[in-house]
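Notes from the 1:1 (GR / supervisor)

We went over the backlog. Supervisor wanted to see one worked example end to end before approving the batch request, so GR pasted a single chain during the call. The sequence is below; no edits were made to it. Supervisor asked that the structure be written out right there so they could see what the output format looks like.
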Amino acid sequence: MKKVGKCYISKEYRNTPVEEAFLTLDRIFALNDNLVSVDDQSDVLKVKIEDKFFYIKRFYRHGSFLRRHIIRSRCTTEFENLKFVGSLGIPTPKIVAYKQSSLFWRLGKGKGVLISEEVTHAKNLYEISKTEPEKFSNSHWRIHLIKELANDLSLLHAKRFVHCDLNWRNLLIKEQDGKTEIYFFDMPLARRRFDFSFRHFMMKDLAMLDRYACQILRRSDRLRFFLYYLGRASLTKRDKQLAKRIRRYNSKKNKIKI
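Structure output shown during the call:
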């Protein structure tokens, strides 16, 4: 990535219509078409430039007082998280540009954007479960997905990185030329934790995945995922205690009971 003013632009997009379209924050925030999602701190647009689609995540606020003054803004955090996860060899959407206004952001009034390429031939895992549920009847596809997801999450946790919002909507499944890949994205809350809180957030990641998995997958498949994640052939006493914590967590959240 190369810095252009206050913006980071991917090398392949320098001096192209894409760079021109995303040159300033004012230009980006003037866009109002093709809204994909919105919340109280950001929204996401999908735009087409030439023959490619891009997702623009616009940050209107940068999180709590503590995040703005001591940690990092949500925009910066997501940018750094995507780079970190990608550096581990785990697929993430390709970052096209990142830009944040320095003025007033510590007061919660600054703006930021994170722009990524569309992951083609991909759907999020929740959408697949609703529109193509027959895929889960394919044992080869299902077991491959379980193993890949378990291995990726195990690697992230080995680096003490926790996602903190690891639901099925935040996992893109790309299928092309007979190959299936899992992409991690939407991670403004993620971070590496080196204190005692790591085990809680590690358990939370597992619980959020299992919260919906219990509706779709058989118990044997969920156990297979857990064993792949742990890298074991059978559960130890400590593993069983972790499984109980996951069930208890989901129950307390008044979600789907396992």
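Supervisor's comment: The first helix runs from residue 17 to 21.
Batch request approved.
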